[in-house]
Amino acid sequence: MTVVEIILRHTGRLGVDALEQLVAAECAIHNDCGWRRWELPIFAEYGRNVVFEIDGELAGSAQLVRSWDHPTVAYLAGFGLLPARQKQGLGARCLALLVEQMKEQGFAAIELTAAPDNAAAVKIYRDAGFRVTDRHDAKYGPGEDRLIMRLNLEETTS
Predict the structure, then answer these.
(1) Taking the model in full, what pTM does it have?
(2) Which of 52, 45, 51 is nearest to 12 (CA)?
(3) 51 pLDDT above the threshold of 60
């Protein structure tokens, strides 16, 4: 088995080329361009936009924001790998790197939502220690039900 090195990199402010590359990746990851060219720069400047690189190439990304009411809680608004990098165990490794970095930065918890019928996403989050805390039917409109999941970082071990 080949050992794959994953690099987690914060994008910071996005240039035009980087933005176009991330938009294309988001369209490939989510099939509907969940994050668009006017949203990703906001996450890059005011939240946290992270890319995962494997062999020097973009493999996936994550977007996070900090809770205004609870500044030690981060909300994982987006997470995914390009289709060519899926189903290889890399998503779990990328998520573990992200979780570890959030712990190192002093966050107490990470929250997210997942579609209840997205078994792969729910499994990767559960395996990482996230627990379902609530369910919101039609959170993003009719037929867009979501599980609310949380990982308490004080309870995880390095």
Answers:
(1) 0.84
(2) 45
(3) yes
